[in-house]
Write the structure tokens for this entry.
Amino acid sequence: MPEKRTLAIVGATGAVSREALAILDAAPEDDPLAQLDVRLLGSPRSAGQTLTCRGRDISVELFTPDSFAGVDFAVFAAGGAVSRDMAPAAAEAGCVVIDNSSAFRMDESTPLVVPEINADLLTDVAIGRGSILANPNCSTILAAVALYPIARALGIERAVISTYQAVSGAGGPAMRELLAQTKAVLEGESARGRIFKEPCAFNLFSHDSAIDPESGRNVEEEKMLREIDKIFASADEPVVPPRLSCTCVRVPVLRAHSESINLTLRRAAGERELREVLAVAPGVRLRDDRANNDFPTPRKAEGGDEVLVGRLRPDPSQDEGRGYDLFLSGDQLRKGAALNALQIARRLLERG
Amino acid sequence: MPEKRTLAIVGATGAVSREALAILDAAPEDDPLAQLDVRLLGSPRSAGQTLTCRGRDISVELFTPDSFAGVDFAVFAAGGAVSRDMAPAAAEAGCVVIDNSSAFRMDESTPLVVPEINADLLTDVAIGRGSILANPNCSTILAAVALYPIARALGIERAVISTYQAVSGAGGPAMRELLAQTKAVLEGESARGRIFKEPCAFNLFSHDSAIDPESGRNVEEEKMLREIDKIFASADEPVVPPRLSCTCVRVPVLRAHSESINLTLRRAAGERELREVLAVAPGVRLRDDRANNDFPTPRKAEGGDEVLVGRLRPDPSQDEGRGYDLFLSGDQLRKGAALNALQIARRLLERG
């Protein structure tokens, strides 16, 4: 009988934590995640609240520097500032930190992990020996899961990505703002919000992160460029990362991101070859039924573990076999955040 | 004193017709559009209804083959089938038909008109002499207005377009469906609709037009490819049309389309040069404030006449000066439909 392991979630009442609990709740008995002892850590505002997981009430404990004693995994989902402040202490206390914020992603010494792509980075990580692992940005994860197998099999020279990002990327309050604001607009009131400067009801807008005055790119776009680069270069079978251009846009959708992606392959390949690559790609499900106009949508992706990929077709503006378009949807809270973090924990647990 | 001209709108109670009335209603006295005698033609279902324009009640007349006597301009906004059936008869009766459907757009003999680009096509058209002119597809018009000036000044080799299309493109009933379905979802009911197969509330989906089983492109994407080609090739200063790839997506927005566009220029140009081109481009307004994160959105475009263009920035994946990204929003019902049609009428009226 293996030792009982403890997983703590920092930011216990946030959207990512709640999704992590839902995943743990639904884990089958033979999933090592099902055996975890779960602790919830939160701010004074949420301490004392009770959440349920696998039939057990879990009370949110006040998060302090002493919270990590006896904790094997610490999933940080409370924003960059909390991670920067506290993750190093958690690692020092012996925790394997899986950080959902952007605080450590680009640190040279921090593995940026998508288990389908670069699980070998976990070889040097061991339960009981403190370390910090970073969960990539949500849009990054979805694009990487779909594009890496193509890059490995055929080579991607360049990708142009336009996102359709759900408000959940800005947390639970943003989801509540979309719902409340939409209700207000339907009742004839004005579209005021606190999370987003722009109205979100029946509207969309360039991603609300800061714009670099020189490059003109926002922080979200910059993250995608750099993180995809780092993930592909650190893959178990490293590939030359594609050159990328990203345009990040928020849409009035609750919790699944979509991306329209135009590819330039390194060598000409047939559409069938591309389909065969995606059909067996881990974490990907092809949903591409032209006759029934059945393609990925946020609604179809919500609550699911896989990145749905469809609209795969040749790009008529490029040389035959070199250009393809595709469209994907994936749950921002699951594969884009909580699920990816728990998949990392599961890999380490399986290895024992 | 010039002769009083008559403009008839076919499809009188539809969303495009209502927008045309709003534009006519707001036209200043010295606008030739303000002098038009407006008639409304509709189906038995809408005949007898009364709409108002410039303080005058206008009763919807039953649309019959005899409706065109004494009509100078006939704006068809009742779908492709009605246009195919009736536009030739209207032209035979001496009307200048401005057809908002796709029925005649790709006919070799039919001018496909965006007045900012190819108004010279109107040289051979005269009031009183029957003819059919086509209004391009809404997404096409918005892209063409923004891209043509760049193509003329700098040359565009290739453009990759991902759209964020409002439901108004599917007409007034689709707008009502979005509102009703959203209300239902907020009240905990299921997201059922009749216009769209996919749920539209808090969701998005690949454009609901049929997919060609061979190319994988839907009808909307095919329209954009072909129409932009035809418009650019027939421009007053013709340009080599760019190679294009389009991905058309419907979003839960009421009436303004947005487009994320990645450009490859024919020759390297500085960002400032591109800005200068767009700053004086007819029908375009630059809205591109990086410091305040103030860029085009559907809400900002709604009810306006111009195509808002922003997020203009170099594409880091292309050779310096050759690649640029931009984002645009424009009112689908105005420049995408009613306004473009009325601008055509205005040009002909001004010429007398």
In short: Residues 13 and 46 of chain A are 7 Å apart (CA to CA). Chain A touches chain B through 62 residues (CB under 8 Å).
